[in-house]
Each structure stands twice: as C-alpha cells, then as structure tokens.
Design goal:
By secondary structure, the chain is of the alpha/beta class. Helix content is 34%, strand content 25%. It contains nine helices and ten strands. The chain starts with a strand and ends in a 12-residue tail after the last helix.
Length: 255
C-alpha cells in the first residue's frame, strides 16, 4: 500500500522554479532517503508535503486521499509527522511536558482547557512508552535546554512519534550530532514499527546507507535518480554531481 504519492509537484517563488514536476511514491513501512546538494529543493519538498507551503502545481496523496490543500494541522491528525532541521522544542519545559503536549495534539483532550494534562493516565503511559523507546525516560524531569544537543535531536523524533504517525518526515535528523549520537539515532529509527513509513533528508551518507531502503537524488528541483543505496552508490551521474569519486562514496559527507 502506498503511504504517500506525489504527482507532478512544482513550486515557484516568483520567477525562481525550486521544484519541477516531481513525482514519486513511498510504500507503507519503507525508509526512503532524499539526498542532493544544498539548494536542490529538499526542504521545500518537505514543506509542500506537510502543508507548510502550497504547491504551484501538482497533487499530494496520503493513503489514497488527496491532501494537496489540506492544512498542516489536519495532516498531523491524519497521521503525518515531521521534524525540522532546527529544533522546535519548548526549551523551558521539561522533557516529559514536551511529549505530553505532543500526545495531546491529536486527541480530543486538547480542547479541555481546565484539566491538567498530567491527569490523563493514558497519555502519561504513552509519553513514558515514547521516552523509553528513545532512551530519554530518565531525563523526563530535565528542562529541554539542559539536555544535550543529541538528546534534543532525539526529542524531535520523540515528539513526532507521540502523535502516532503513519508517515514520519525527518529533515536532517543527524545534523550536528557526534558519531556516537548519530549511531544511536540510526538505531532508534531502524527499530521503529514496520507500520511507519519514513521519508528523510540527509547529507550524511553513513546515515543514508544505514537506514534507507531506497534513495532519491534531487538536483536543481528534479529527481534525477532513484534506487537502492547500492544502485545510487554505483550511479555514475550521481557520483559526478553529488557523491564525488567512487572510491570515497561510501563515507562521503556533503557540505
């Protein structure tokens, strides 16, 4: 089953065409990476998928339903979640409070204005489950500003998981992480439920080749290649314009 289908998606900013007739699909449960040089249109594509931007042309379908003009908050309620390249956490709240807010975001309880959200035992149980899966339960009472950058990146993924998504969109999830932190994050994403499709942007080829079932290469707003990590690694055009010399491709890090 297709979790996501994109048909002829284009985006112009004035006279600048950032995306040009982009079409692809993501099967339910698959991990698909989007790579490409800076300015290729990767984040713009995610913004179109999540409703943060409106396309100039094209359609977006989520589990068969067209959502092209659906507001961003409605897409979250339908099962789409997204992390950002720059963290968007509530830095002065605790780790637990951040997750509880995310848990409430797709539940009817978000309309209950006069009851503390810690009174909802089911949501507390969900928050504990999510934080334990991210190895953050022991940090639950810490304010977000006092945990490490790597833990904050894990928190971004945790916030997404709290909404029980069917499709998880990640923008540079390993940005700024140490090798050990990136390895931990790879393990966490690898162990996500097979019922969750993941579409992620990454520059770190170790992350891409460790996580992705498929890789799409975006170049000047157009998908120029798609295939398994091995196929992309061996593609001469990709090597030329993005990965660099073949002997260094597996460990390449794009600036």
């Amino acid at each position: 089953m297709e979790a996501l289908r994109v048909v002829g998606l284009s985006k112009n900013f004035g006279g600048l065409e950032v995306l040009k007739d982009v079409s692809f699909s993501v099967e339910n449960g698959k991990r698909v990476a989007i790579i490409g040089p800076n300015g290729a249109g990767k984040t713009t594509l995610l913004n179109l998928l999540t409703g943060n931007l409106s396309p100039t042309a094209g359609e977006v379908y989520f589990f068969g339903q067209e959502i092209t003009i659906m507001p961003a908050h409605r897409r979250v309620q339908f099962g789409m979640a997204r992390s950002f390249q720059i963290t968007t956490l509530f830095s002065t709240l605790t780790v637990l409070d951040n997750i509880l807010l995310a848990c409430h975001g797709t539940k009817p309880s978000r309309f209950q204005m006069f009851r503390s959200f810690i009174a909802y035992e089911d949501l507390l149980a969900k928050a504990k489950e999510v934080l334990e899966s991210m190895n953050l339960w022991e940090k639950r009472n810490e304010t977000v500003q006092n945990i490490s950058h790597g833990e904050q990146r894990q928190m971004e993924v945790a916030l997404c998981l709290a909404s029980e998504p069917k499709l998880l969109l990640l923008d540079e999830p390993s940005a700024g992480l140490t090798t050990a932190e990136a390895t931990s994050l790879i393990d966490i994403i690898s162990n996500l439920s097979v019922e969750i499709a993941v579409l992620f942007i990454a520059h770190d080829m170790d992350v891409v080749f460790s996580l992705a079932d498929e890789v799409m290469v975006l170049y000047y707003g157009t998908i120029i290649a798609r295939g398994t990590p091995q196929e992309i690694q061996a593609d001469s055009r990709v090597q030329e314009i993005y990965l660099g010399p073949s002997e260094g491709a597996t460990n390449a890090e794009v600036s």
